[in-house]
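Inverse folding, one chain.
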């Protein structure tokens, strides 16, 4: 009875989300939560969402599907144990319930740590299962670096050989799929099955009260007019430094225009149009010519000027420390979108907005990059029934497209956590989602010597040796490309 009631509530919730989405489309010029690489929703059903192509009679006889996941952030991404009334929590609960009922399976989530450090339990468990052939896990999803390491180690099945997954559908992130497919192999995917590909969008938070107090230009207007550039951001931060503790020293107790830890500075590499590894005309990979170019040097110099030429802006010593911004002591703060749902941001006594990283040049397009800490989904090589795993992944992504993404993007981020201007903020959210880029050089950072990390460190430490340091490592980076191509070719039949 409880299950029947829950499914009834799910139907009601879906109707509410569709209604909410329709109002937003008519009154606020919003777009639906569909990847821009997919065609218009001419095939949408009566509820406004495109249906999947899974067979209606697909039945896996009550089998348990074990999903190995990870748990670094507070954000819910895999399961919700019970209904709480929170729209995002309940969307996960209903998503999993709908998949279980539809396919006649039982979802069993095993959540581990997967950060690549000493307490990482995820990858050893996956390795032990595949090497022993025990088939312990049917699906695996974790931090992008953990899953790329699993792919490079030959632990994952080629998703292009799995039935039921339809990568032409809007719930799969097309820009990732095109980038990560090589030599007939694709080992991982993301999209509406993986909401961290929304929450980990890197951008710039702004303190709207400081915008008002100092009579500054509206960041939303600047973004939508195409005038939001690194030069404009620097201009807006001029003269905002204030020595709040009176010690005549620039430190993290003061007020600033812009602040960022070193990790977030990786974003400006990609948002400025630079790339690390690109596909060439023959279908292989090569190092991007932009790595060591006038543009890359220009980005470094511009960011170093912003951060180091005056007291107005600062770098934060502790990664992920939002104290300066949360306490109202910074105009701009670089961090992924998901922070907006944190208790500190919800309780802030000023209005907060979110915009993309500024463009390098006014003539460029806005580009959205993800932090490394988003989940990508895969099927282990020893999964007991890869096609069942594929069906579950497709159903989870399809249901996520209809329930979780609308709950997070339309209801929570566009309404619940936004107090300034929901219409323009919504338009910017949608724009950022459509302009997302991926790069194998970042996904396989371990293989490519954390190339963008070194770029960020060059800015953070105000060094001028980027060109020489890259050239000294060029041969090893090219060798890493050869090795990666070999890996994809070797395991393409998995």
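Residues assigned per position:
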């Amino acid at each position: 009875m409880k299950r029947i009631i829950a499914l009834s509530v799910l139907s009601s919730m879906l109707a509410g989300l569709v209604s909410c989405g329709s109002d937003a489309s008519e009154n606020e010029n919003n777009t639906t939560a569909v990847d821009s690489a997919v065609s218009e929703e001419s095939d949408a059903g009566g509820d406004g969402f495109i249906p999947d192509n899974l067979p209606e009679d697909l039945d896996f006889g009550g089998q348990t599907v074990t999903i190995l996941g990870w748990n670094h952030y507070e954000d819910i991404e895999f399961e919700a144990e019970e209904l709480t009334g929170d729209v995002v929590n309940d969307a996960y609960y209903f998503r999993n319930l709908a998949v279980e009922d539809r396919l006649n399976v039982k979802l069993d989530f095993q959540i581990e740590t997967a950060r690549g450090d000493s307490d990482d339990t995820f990858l050893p468990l996956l390795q032990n299962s595949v090497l022993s052939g025990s088939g312990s896990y049917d699906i695996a999803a974790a931090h992008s670096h953990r899953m790329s390491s699993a792919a490079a180690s030959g632990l994952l099945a080629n998703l292009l050989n799995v039935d039921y997954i339809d990568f032409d559908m809007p719930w799969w992130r097309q820009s990732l799929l095109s980038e990560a497919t090589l030599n007939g192999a694709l080992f991982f995917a993301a999209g509406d099955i993986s909401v961290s590909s929304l929450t980990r969008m890197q951008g710039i938070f702004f303190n709207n009260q400081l915008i008002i107090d100092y009579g500054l230009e509206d960041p939303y207007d600047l973004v939508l007019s195409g005038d939001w550039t690194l030069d404009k951001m620097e201009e807006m931060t001029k003269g905002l430094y204030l020595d709040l503790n009176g010690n005549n020293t620039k430190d993290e107790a003061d007020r600033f225009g812009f602040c960022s830890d070193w990790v977030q500075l990786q974003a400006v590499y990609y948002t400025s149009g630079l790339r690390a590894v690109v596909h060439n005309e023959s279908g292989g990979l090569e190092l991007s010519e932009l790595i060591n170019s006038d543009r890359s040097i220009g980005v470094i110099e511009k960011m170093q000027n912003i951060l180091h030429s005056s007291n107005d802006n600062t770098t934060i010593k502790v990664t992920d420390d939002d104290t300066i911004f949360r306490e109202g002591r910074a105009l701009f703060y670089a961090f992924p979108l998901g922070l907006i749902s944190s208790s500190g941001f919800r309780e802030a006594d000023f209005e907060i907005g979110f915009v993309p990283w500024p463009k390098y040049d006014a003539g460029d397009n806005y580009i959205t990059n993800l932090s490394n800490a988003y989940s990508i989904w895969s099927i282990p090589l020893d999964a007991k029934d890869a096609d069942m795993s594929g069906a579950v992944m497709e159903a989870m992504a399809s249901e996520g497209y209809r329930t979780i993404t609308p709950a997070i993007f339309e209801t929570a981020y566009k309404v619940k956590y936004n107090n300034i201007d929901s219409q323009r903020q919504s338009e910017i959210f949608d724009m950022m989602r459509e302009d997302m880029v991926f790069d194998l050089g970042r996904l396989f950072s371990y293989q490519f010597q954390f190339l963008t990390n070194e770029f960020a460190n060059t800015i953070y430490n105000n060094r001028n040796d980027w060109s020489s340091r890259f050239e000294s490592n060029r041969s090893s980076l090219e060798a890493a490309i050869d090795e990666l191509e070999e890996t994809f070719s070797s395991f393409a039949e998995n």
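The longest helix spans residues 2-28. Confidence is low (pLDDT under 50) at residues 1-42.
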